[in-house]
Every structure is written in C-alpha cells, then in structure tokens.
Specification:
With 78 residues, this protein is an all-alpha fold. Helix content is 79%, strand content 0%. The chain contains 3 helices and no strands. The longest helix has 28 residues.
Length: 78
C-alpha cells in the first residue's frame, strides 16, 4: 500500500471528514472508495472509446436508441 499526501483547503477537508463520519467510515477509507469509483468510471470510458473507435457508429447509436426506449418504457410502466 502507498501513502499519498494531498493539499486541500481547510473547509474542504472538514467537509470530507464530515462526509466520512456520516458514512461511518474513516477519511482514508472514503478516499479509497472515491478513487475506486473514479478509476472505474475512467476504465469504463476508456473501454467504450476503444470499442467505439473500432466499431460501427450507426450500429452503436441504434443500440443506444433501443436502450433509451427500453429505459423510458420501463419507467412509464408499459
């Protein structure tokens, strides 16, 4: 495990401590969770962009349109 030192404005530091306390976790664990989320999002975007570069734009847009329709139909109770 590595050690990371960061500089934050005092008010931001206090708010992050309050967030960690509200979640019942340590500040260290909070940063671990936030960094994991950020890296997961970055990895997903990177994979998507690589696939998009190799793929068929029309087919990809058709899939997204179908997903949108399914999502909105599911929300309206149809």
């Amino acid at each position: 495990m590595s050690t990371l030192t960061i500089r934050l404005p005092a008010d931001q530091h206090e708010r992050l401590k309050a967030l960690a306390a509200a979640r019942g976790t340590s500040l260290n664990k909070l940063f671990e969770e936030l960094s994991t989320k950020a890296l997961t999002e970055f990895d997903a975007e990177t994979r998507f962009r690589l696939r998009a570069a190799r793929g068929d734009a029309k087919k990809g847009l058709d899939i997204l349109d179908r997903l949108d329709r399914q999502h909105f139909e599911g929300r309206s109770g149809k």
